[in-house]
Amino acid sequence: MSKKKKRATQHRKNEITRGIFEVLEKEPNKTFNYKQIASKLQIDDTEGRNILIKRLGQLKAKERIREFERGKYRSLENKLLHQGKIEVTARGNAYVVVEGLDDDIFVSYNKLNRAFDGDIVEVLVKPRRKSNKLEGEVVSILERKKNAFVGILDLHKSFAFVRPTDHKMYTDIFVPLSSVGKAKDGEKVIVEVLSWAKEEESPTGKVVEVLGLPGEHDTEIHAILAEYGLPYQFPAEVQRYADKLDTSIKESEVKKRRDMRQVLTFTIDPKDAKDFDDALSFQQLPNGNYEVGIHIADVSYYVIPDTVLDEEAYERATSVYLVDRVVPMLPEVLSNNACSLRPNEDKYTFSAIFEIDEKAQVKNEWFGRTVIHSDERFAYEEAQYIIEKQTNRIGEEVSIRGKAYDVSDAIRDAVLKLNSLAVIMRERRMKAGAISFDKLEVKFNLNEKNEPVSVYFKEAKEANKLIEEFMLLANRKVASFIGKQRPQKTFVYRVHDEPDQEKLMALNGIISRFGHKLNFHNKKTISDSLNKLLEDVKGQKEQNLVDTLAIRSMSKAIYTTDNIGHYGLAFDFYTHFTSPIRRYPDVMVHRLLQHYLDGGKAPNPEMIEEKCKHSSDMEYLASSAERDSIKYMQIKFMQDHKDQEFVGVISGVTEWGIYVEIIENKCEGMVRIRDIKDDYYTFDEKQYALVGERRRKVYQLGDEVRVMVKDTDLVKRHLDFTLLGKAK
């Protein structure tokens, strides 16, 4: 090639390079393929197109431009362009949460550009207006949170639509008749979104599963699971794999373990539990101290990495505890049989064994694989009976055997001594700044059709706290055993950050209406005053409201490799070691602990961190599904109490109405502002109140009111009340 031609070619390359930047930077929120750029630069010859394609590849490799998706390019620098998670509100608008930005970005309904709740999006921020609120427009969807939705099928002659029941899903989904399958008009289904072309008003999808008729019990429970992408049965290949496992106890394996079968051992669990994943052993040592073993089901012995069983357990990450059923992380052959520490059976366990003195101080510790033989299985009520009565005799009124029975002196003495040690450990934890959240749990008595016949509250007593303290001890000691080693080792920690000061100030404003206050002098006074608050409201009408608001003011506990300690427990080191049957992070902890006990090197922290994040995300989904199942059952319960008057506490105030929680059963419903007829009410945000314009009557957060059920909707999980007035 002549010098003249080389110069001409180089000149053209430079021109095309400048042109690429001009096109991309002129519209930084758009992506362009090479044909669109060629058109804007008026390149219509083969040589020019080849240079353009080559330069786009080179600029991308040098990270001077971005290839947003295959063959589509965008300008690299755009300070107004952010990535974040979009959260759609019930009204159809949304906020994009961007890491590193103090304020969330508001996105109006008409600027969502087909983004769904939970998607990871790119959002272009507009110049701030007078409101000083960050506003933006979604310009692209980077990652869909989910593409399957629960809804009601509307079947027409030549097409169908699915109306999603998720109030955050703002559009119907078009379904061609060929994609309806066996679904019938009006049935609740799961629909998978396949595409959403720009020229179409609605996305196109296909029905992938029929759940049943709306309002039917199994339909609604399966719908709750499906809404969160949670399974309700195991794939056939996973079930086959689990069923073929050899779950027998082998002498060759026993020889590799510390044999604890001759030491007094027992379990204490809820009376309806089937998966007993922890047991306690107890014996007094010749020096007067006590050896306490916390024995945990050795799930990692059966769940081997890179098997279909392990992959399924990881994907689920947790068992889901709905009101009427448990959706287990592991198939029943493991969760209720092989791994469950049932009485009078030899079991493989992973143990934390401590020598503890009379002052509940740990003198020695040992971690490793063991084999145990549980002597007794107690329900919490039975262990509580021993503690309260200090007796060998379990009364018929609490017995899970259907009749009164006796336990040995050794069992009685072990339970009483373990309880006294647990009391000391708990007091020490509280003095160190731990926060005591003993929130009442709402439970239902169900009939054979899984219909709620009554509501009761589960309260933690000494027997519950006994188990809690020794599980906390094992979790803390395992974490500190690894966490204090140098060089630092990759590990799974359960961390809990300090609460947000603004949330605590807001909590203080609300509780002041009930005569309580927080002390913000320092970290210790905050935790002490929080504990005093939680103790003072026990048995008061505002207890559940204050408990709920206090929990909401806290940061969320998560799994991570980055240890920052656990604020709520006042521990510098904490992990989850004690429930591997129902939590995947505990399986990870067992594997890592054994790996380090065997002298192994630290694995890749990024890989472990990714698994931690997935486990935290799945825990959140499971807890959301659990809350929804409680809400569903509360509405079902209230259907049979429509002519009854109730006294409740105003638990929330919004511009569209007030939420009222009934004192006697904790069912929460809404009184819509349009249904309060005695005046025209407006929302006063500062007072957390609705205020009548003419009579100035105030309905404020925490007020006691009288209500009746107006409407119950099991499908949408709505409970509406009629307001009768203030309680006298």
UniProtKB/TrEMBL annotation:
<dbReference type="InterPro" id="IPR013223">
    <property type="entry name" value="RNase_B_OB_dom"/>
</dbReference>
<dbReference type="Pfam" id="PF00575">
    <property type="entry name" value="S1"/>
</dbReference>
<comment type="similarity">
    <text>Belongs to the RNR ribonuclease family. RNase R subfamily.</text>
</comment>
<dbReference type="InterPro" id="IPR050180">
    <property type="entry name" value="RNR_Ribonuclease"/>
</dbReference>
<keyword id="KW-0694">RNA-binding</keyword>
<dbReference type="Pfam" id="PF00773">
    <property type="entry name" value="RNB"/>
</dbReference>
<dbReference type="InterPro" id="IPR011805">
    <property type="entry name" value="RNase_R"/>
</dbReference>
<comment type="function">
    <text>3'-5' exoribonuclease that releases 5'-nucleoside monophosphates and is involved in maturation of structured RNAs.</text>
</comment>
<dbReference type="InterPro" id="IPR012340">
    <property type="entry name" value="NA-bd_OB-fold"/>
</dbReference>
<dbReference type="Pfam" id="PF17876">
    <property type="entry name" value="CSD2"/>
</dbReference>
<dbReference type="InterPro" id="IPR022966">
    <property type="entry name" value="RNase_II/R_CS"/>
</dbReference>
<dbReference type="Pfam" id="PF08206">
    <property type="entry name" value="OB_RNB"/>
</dbReference>
<dbReference type="InterPro" id="IPR003029">
    <property type="entry name" value="S1_domain"/>
</dbReference>
<dbReference type="InterPro" id="IPR040476">
    <property type="entry name" value="CSD2"/>
</dbReference>
<keyword id="KW-0269">Exonuclease</keyword>
<keyword id="KW-0540">Nuclease</keyword>
<keyword id="KW-0963">Cytoplasm</keyword>
<dbReference type="InterPro" id="IPR011129">
    <property type="entry name" value="CSD"/>
</dbReference>
<feature type="domain" description="S1 motif">
    <location>
        <begin position="643"/>
        <end position="724"/>
    </location>
</feature>
<protein>
    <recommendedName>
        <fullName>Ribonuclease R</fullName>
        <ecNumber>3.1.13.1</ecNumber>
    </recommendedName>
</protein>
<dbReference type="InterPro" id="IPR004476">
    <property type="entry name" value="RNase_II/RNase_R"/>
</dbReference>
<dbReference type="InterPro" id="IPR001900">
    <property type="entry name" value="RNase_II/R"/>
</dbReference>
<keyword id="KW-0378">Hydrolase</keyword>
